[in-house]
Amino acid sequence: MGESAQRQSSGLGSVWKHLSWALLTVQCTSFVLLLHYSRIMSPAGGKRYLTSTTVFFNEVVKLAISLTMALYEVSKTAPPSVPATSLFFSLTTAIFSGDSWKLAIPACLYTLANSLQYIALSNLPPATFQASYQLKLIVVAIASLVLLKRPVSLRKLGLMVLLLAGVALVQMPTGNPDDMTLQDETARLAFPRSLEEWKASKLGRESLHKRSATYEGIEEDMMTANPRLNATVGLLATVGACLASGVASVYFEKVLKDSAKSTSLWIRNVQLSVYSIFPALFIGVVFLDGEKVAANGFFEGYNWIVWSTVVVQAIGGIATSFYIGYAFRDGKNMAMAASIVLTTVASVWLFEFELTANYLLGSFAVLVVTCLCEDANSASAQAKRQTFRPPPIRVDRYEKESKSGDASPASPSPNEISIKLPGLHLRATYALAAPQAVDISKSTHETTELQFADIIFASFA
Questions:
Q1: Inside any domain, residue 204
Q2: Rounded to the nearest 5°, which phi and psi values hold at 201?
Q3: Under a CB-based contact definition with an 8 Å cutoff, are residues 245 and 109 in contact?
Q4: What global pTM score does this model have?
Q5: Phi and psi for 299 in degrees, rounded to 5?
Q6: Is residue 329 included in any domain, yes or no?
């Protein structure tokens, strides 16, 4: 019965693990597609939204979700009579105590990576970005070697070289850069951004009015309406996002391992969000885009697609921290490999992405590296678990009583730990507990496991 329950629990854990991989695949794919479409669609009200505001709202959404779940965890361990103010005080103490200040570094790096992802997907197709973003595997390997002293095998070095070659093939241009636009008039889908836009689309083009071609700011408006593809900027932004995100994830893992006390991952997510809000607000919104926000408003160009992108990105950030905390890197690599395939198929269908020989060869190399890195991580983790598995503990059965009155246990195996329980006064204790039940002087038979258990329970009676 115990074995069946164990098999059932292990099977349930496997189901949840595969479900988490599937959800991560959907999240990565939908985030890339939504973000890219939000950057190439016709801007709402003639103005495109500011990426600094979306990065800030991403941290706000993550903070709201993580703070709610952290408060729920604190309330579960508190008595029912504890007031809400005490719960908030306990939560605040847990957030800003200990080594929480160490998370300021990965928080700033994650904020930088999020900002660079918007720049990259504004200049690259989703399929190209998704394949190029796997350069993060190289950054994680190097950062793990430096920060975690995790060795890099020759096999992994060869995979890194293959990954670089694959990304180079993916990034190889296929046409004249001056003729490449991010918005294709032959795209299959163009979703309405609001109910008013859907109603206005029925009126036809006659309802549109023409503007003069000589007004001030026409070049900026033309770039907003028809953004140009800049592969160089997109590649540099992708590499920067890989560097920032890779170092941040390894540093976050180091903080979790070096922490003196165990802290809930929801508390860790709150700490990351708190430290991320400050650079996102003061550097991104106020310093870089302060004039535009003051002139056009904070929610300039927002619609349901932009809000969906923010929410999906926030969920992905929380999920990534849990994958790092619970060491599910092998499953994350498989999810990213599946996301590359899904993103490529969706890009061909939604954005008329052209599949070239260079892209097919490069993406195939990236997929091979991602899957082989997953196998290597799983094998090393399994070997590590087997290496540090403690030896079995066995309690030897006592043989017949010797003439000296001491029990002589059988010699244990050299690979097993033998624990000899004290035999002194056990019989006397049992006799004092139940003198009418046992005649100690006539006891010459072998002590069985059941009698041994009775002796233990009687000694504590």
A1: no
A2: -65, -20
A3: yes
A4: 0.70
A5: -100, 35
A6: yes
Show which of 387, 415, 445 is a domain's final residue.
387
Rounded Cα distance, 303 and 290, in Å: 21
Distance CA 460, CA 447 (A): 19
Give the single-character DSSP code of 460: T
374/404 same-domain check: no
**104 pLDDT tier (thresholds 50, 70, 90):** very high
Q: Output the six-digit token pair for 337.
A: 């490999």
The two tokens of residue 36 are 């890219």
Co-location of 441 and 380 in the same domain: no
Tokens encoding 320: 């990534």
User: Same structural domain for residues 89 and 157?
Assistant: yes
Closest CA to 351 of 128, 167, 179: 128
- Total domain count, the chain: 2
CB–CB of 18/101 below 8 Å?
A: no
Both 118 and 92 in a single domain?
A: yes
What is the phi/psi pair of residue 169, to 5°? -65, -40
Write out the residue range of the structural domain in which residue 369 sits.
20-198+227-387
Confidence of residue 15 (pLDDT cuts 50, 70, 90): low
Do 69 and 144 lie in a common domain?
yes
Measured CA to CA, the distance from residue 182 to residue 169 in angstroms comes to 20
Question: Do 458 and 434 touch, CB atoms closer than 8 A?
Answer: yes
| DSSP annotation of 403 | T
- Structure tokens that stand for 434 in this block: 């139940």
My answer on whether 382 and 407 are in the same domain is: no
226-253 residues labelled b (16+ CB within 10 A) or e (exposed): ebbbbbeebbebbbbbbbbbbbbbbbbb
| 1 located within any domain | no
Q: Which amino acid type is present at position 111? A: T
Q: At 400, phi and psi to the nearest 5?
A: -65, 150
Q: Are residues 123 and 239 in the same domain?
A: yes
Q: Is residue 206 part of a domain?
A: no
At 407, phi and psi to the nearest 5? -80, 140
Alpha helices in 42-125 (DSSP H): 51-77, 84-95, 104-121
Interval 116-166: pLDDT, tens: 999 999 999 999 999 999 999 999 999 999 999 999 889 999 999 999 999
> Which domain-ending residue is among 332, 362, 387?
387
Contact 86, 79 (CB under 8 A): no
Residue 326 contacts residue 262 (beta carbons within 8 Å) = no
Compute the distance between CA of residue 333 and CA of residue 134 in angstroms, rounded to an integer.
9
Class of residue 5 by CB neighbours under 10 A (exposed 0-12, middle 13-18, buried 19+): exposed
Task: Give how far the C-alpha of residue 39 lies from the chain's centroid of Cα atoms, to the nearest Å.
Answer: 25
User: How does the average pLDDT of the chain come out, rounded?
Assistant: 75
